[in-house]
TrEMBL record:
It comes from Melaminivora suipulveris. Pfam families: MatE. Coiled coil: none annotated. InterPro entries: MATE_fam (IPR002528), MdtK-like (IPR048279), Membrane_Transporter-Flippase (IPR052031). It is a multi-pass membrane protein. This is MATE family efflux transporter. The keyword Cell inner membrane does not apply. Keywords: Cell membrane, Membrane, Transmembrane, Transmembrane helix, Transport. GO terms for molecular function: antiporter activity; xenobiotic transmembrane transporter activity.
Length: 507
């Protein structure tokens, strides 16, 4: 256990770090997951509203332009997604160990990394926007629009990255409500600013599609500024003020951890993205009706997978705090309750979608379209795969809370590239187009089997976040080196570098 830390008054009111190592697990986990789920829904609805303004009023070329530019943005966010998850896990373990000095140290180094990475990407990406879009074979008629939109997205990336990072770290500290509220602010601003900047209403200039990209940047910048101001006003334990500026100096040990643990988690997103592109290519080969049906089904799948993703993220943060506190009994209970909530929420949502899919699919497909019957058929086969996907996502979230990231990456690679893609491609001669649809539940079952086996018998509980004796040289604050209980290794700053050591609020 870390040494005792002098306690100052807790952060004013609600919204500070929450101790998830005490209290009933099931209601705490559910309360923690619901704001994350709400945030996922908000982001999807925001994308749909923006698509309405762009596609419905600027035309198909503009919608194609935003689709191409958003694919690039998704890959850029995915590239640092794992780094953010690694920072979240480190902060959660520190909070669970009641070592807020270490949590703030991780916060400072991670913020510097994210800020620097975002500025470099923006500076390099803006002048290369057109070249990137040409390399992606963006249709010629959409290229000028896509370039104007993408340049604005690159301008927005520093605010997007930092807002996403701060929100993720707050969730690691046990606070899912605050990130949701400020995400709600960002989405509301984006929805309002989109038509104002696209069409030039009132004092706003008419910018066309570039206005949509600028709206994204401005809304995230304002939400980030409001979130930082709130953290400072509330004297939040993770807020790093002028007196603690040295915490922003990058520490090599923490940077090594962020990269070594974060890159494999980011690679998982890349594997999923590339495999989905492969599946889309196979679907496209069967004609427009099948491709349209698949596109409509994907709209539903986006929402069906949200409960599992929210529960998995909540389980990861909650388990990481309990790992930091060495409460392995609670880690096991978090996993069991997470799987149970996944079956309950995802299963109920799948049942509702299947019961009402004719009406829902009709929102995306013309009445009487051949694609409607195809979409109904493929949903009947593939939709249930998200129930198994949810189990894998929850267990993987618990496993990676210790820093074990390589085996989950291998399992995902086998499920996607060793099972799903070969089945979808190789069995079409026997099953026809149904081979593609059946590849989803079969690969999901394979992932569940492998993930469950690793959870039950694997060595993830002995995974290391720090090697014994690893340190940066000028430090004197000891933190746990390994969740399995090896001797502690110092990674953070001296006590004089950290002005406050606030108390934790109960869950």
């Amino acid at each position: 256990m870390p040494p005792s830390i002098p306690q100052a008054p807790a952060a004013r009111g609600a919204g500070g770090p929450r101790d998830l190592t005490r209290g009933p697990i099931a209601p705490t986990l559910l309360r923690f997951a619901l704001p994350i789920l709400g945030g996922n829904v908000l982001q999807s609805l925001n994308g749909s509203v923006n698509a309405y303004w762009v596609g419905g009023h600027l035309g198909e070329a503009a919608l194609t332009a935003t689709a191409n530019a958003n694919n690039i943005l998704f890959l850029l966010i995915g590239a640092v997604f794992g780094i953010g998850m690694a920072a979240t896990i480190l902060v959660a373990q520190a909070v669970g160990a009641h070592d807020l000095r270490q949590a703030r140290c991780v916060m400072g180094t991670s913020a510097t990394f994210f800020g620097a990475a975002a500025l470099v990407i923006a500076a390099v990406g803006m002048p290369l926007s057109r070249h990137i879009l040409v390399a992606m074979s963006t249709p010629q008629e959409a290229l000028p629009l896509a370039e104007a939109y993408l340049r604005m997205l690159f301008l927005a990336i520093p605010f997007l990255y930092l807002f996403t990072f701060v929100s993720a770290v707050l969730r690691g500290a046990g606070d899912a409500r605050t990130p949701f509220l400020f995400l709600l602010l960002a989405v509301a601003l984006d929805v309002v600013l989109n038509p104002l900047l696209i069409f030039g209403m009132g004092p706003f200039p008419e910018m066309g599609i570039a206005g949509s990209g600028l709206a994204t940047g401005v809304s995230n910048a304002l939400a980030l500024a409001a979130l930082l101001a709130w953290l400072r006003w509330r004297r939040h334990p993770l807020w790093i003020g002028a007196a603690d500026w040295r915490l922003f100096a990058p520490r090599p040990t923490i940077l090594r951890l962020l990269l070594s643990k974060g890159l494999p988690m980011g690679a998982q997103m890349v594997l999923i993205s590339v495999s989905m592109l492969m599946m889309l290519g196979m679907v496209n080969a069967h004609g427009v009706a099948t491709a349209s049906a698949y596109g409509a089904a994907l709209q539903l799948w986006t929402y069906v997978q949200m409960p599992a993703m929210a529960i998995g993220a909540a389980c990861s943060s909650m388990a990481a705090q309990n790992v930091g506190a060495q409460r392995w009994d609670r880690v096991e209970s978090v996993a069991l309750w997470g799987v149970g909530f996944n079956f309950l929420l995802t299963g109920a949502l799948i049942g509702v979608v299947l019961a009402a899919q004719h009406r829902v699919l009709a929102l995306f497909l013309p009445a009487g379209s051949e694609a409607l019957a195809i979409a109904t058929h493929l949903n009947g086969i593939a939709l249930w795969s998200f129930l198994f996907f949810g189990v894998s996502f929850v267990l993987t979230g618990v496993v990676r809370s210790t820093g074990a990231v390589l085996v989950p990456l291998v399992i995902l690679a086998i499920a996607m590239w060793g099972v799903r893609i070969p089945l979808a491609w190789g069995l079409q001669g026997w099953l026809g187009i149904d081979a593609i649809w059946w590849s989803f539940p079969i690969s999901a079952l394979a992932a569940v089997a492998m993930t469950s086996a690793y959870y039950r018998w694997g060595g993830w509980r002995r995974a290391k976040l720090l090697a014994p004796g690893e340190e940066d040289g000028e430090v004197d604050v000891a933190v746990p080196a390994e969740v399995g209980g090896l001797p502690p290794a110092p990674i953070c700053g001296t006590a004089s570098e950290v002005a406050r050591e606030p108390a934790l609020a109960p869950a």
